[in-house]
């Protein structure tokens, strides 16, 4: 089992004909993902990487029955691309693009809500979603782990990869990189709920980072709704106060948003928190070995 992305998912790539779109379309295809076409209004009717290019997302869905879109368009055009995907009511839209203005992210997130939340947005500024052995939508390397029964949700792309690799002997049902911007479509809580309901997931790794209160809110959700074991890591224990670190959302003000505050909130509800990514992997390994 997996969440949101399965072996039956049909993927289109908005921006497939660009440099990044081309490179990662090739990688997705090589991983076995069912990429069925791309979208570029100026190149509609042509083929690229052996796949048809459509003028609109709506047309792509009509012709291919696609149910996932991966967005590789420049930041200035991302808002319009995502709104087009929402208008076409594609179930899942994975926004890889980095540097999307927060105002634009807020606008397309609100647009999705206003349209009835028929499109789940993952991102922006994220590595995407991978269900090992089934499908891969985004830029997560397909060969660093195996299929298994651990679910992973992470704000950080590189830490997603590290935990997937360190726990490759147990494998993953699905790994979701939700992105580290201040406004994102899918949250830790969304993924925690999906993993809790997924019969193919036995335990959950949650990777957070300094800034905001997403991890504290996730802790409150875990206390009320999650019965599966959760292990967490919070990046940024050594970050200086008041500095934006890496992701635009990673800014600390006073005690709010610090790694220590997040660690304490998670441990209070029974989540084991590693001090390093490798220790986090070790804690999960102990849980999986005891099952």
Structure, explained:
This protein has helices spanning 19-31, 57-64, 75-87, 102-114, 157-166, 188-197, 214-225, 259-268, 277-289; strands at 10-14, 34-39, 47-48, 51-54, 68-71, 92-95, 120-122, 128-131, 135-138, 147-154, 172-177, 203-209, 230-235, 272-274. A 7-stranded mixed beta sheet has the order 3-4-2-1-5-6-7, with helices on both faces. Strands 9-8-11-10-12-13-14 form a 7-stranded mixed beta sheet, with helices on both faces. Helix 5 (157-166) packs across helix 9 (277-289). The protein folds into 2 domains: 10-122, Rossmann fold (3-Layer(aba) Sandwich), CATH 3.40.50; 144-289, Rossmann fold (3-Layer(aba) Sandwich). By secondary structure, it is of the alpha/beta class. The protein starts with 9 loop residues before the first strand and ends with a helix. The protein is built from 9 helices and 14 strands. Strand 5 (68-71), helix 3 (75-87) and strand 6 (92-95) form a beta-alpha-beta unit. The longest helix has 13 residues, at 19-31. The mean pLDDT is 94.
Can you give me a brief rundown of this structure?
By secondary structure, the protein is α/β, with parallel strands linked by helices.
């Amino acid at each position: 089992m997996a969440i949101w992305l399965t072996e039956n998912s049909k993927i289109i790539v908005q921006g497939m004909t660009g440099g990044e779109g081309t490179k990662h379309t090739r990688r997705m295809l090589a991983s076995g993902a069912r990429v069925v076409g791309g979208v570029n209004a100026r190149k509609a009717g042509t083929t690229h990487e052996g796949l048809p290019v459509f003028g609109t997302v709506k047309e792509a869905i009509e012709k291919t029955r696609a149910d996932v879109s991966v967005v590789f368009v420049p930041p200035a055009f991302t808002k319009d691309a995502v709104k087009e995907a929402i208008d076409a009511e594609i179930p899942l839209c994975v926004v890889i693009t980095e540097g999307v203005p927060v105002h634009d992210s807020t606008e397309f997130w609100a647009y999705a809500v206003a349209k009835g939340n028929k499109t789940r947005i993952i991102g922006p500024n994220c590595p995407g979603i991978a269900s090992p052995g089934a499908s891969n939508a985004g830029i997560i390397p397909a060969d660093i782990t195996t299929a298994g029964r651990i679910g992973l949700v992470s704000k950080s792309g590189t830490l997603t990869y590290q935990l997937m690799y360190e726990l490759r002997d147990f494998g993953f049902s699905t790994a979701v990189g939700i992105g580290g911007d201040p406004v994102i479509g899918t949250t830790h809580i969304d993924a925690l709920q999906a993993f809790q309901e997924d019969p193919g997931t036995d335990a959950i790794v949650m990777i957070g980072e300094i800034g905001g209160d997403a991890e504290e809110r996730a802790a409150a959700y875990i206390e009320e709704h999650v019965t599966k074991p959760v292990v967490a890591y919070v990046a940024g224990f050594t970050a200086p106060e008041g500095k934006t670190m890496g992701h635009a959302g990673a800014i600390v003000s006073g005690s709010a948003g610090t790694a220590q505050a997040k660690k304490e909130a998670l441990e209070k509800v029974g989540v084991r928190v590693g001090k390093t990514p490798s220790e986090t992997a070790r804690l999960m390994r102990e849980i999986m070995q005891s099952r």
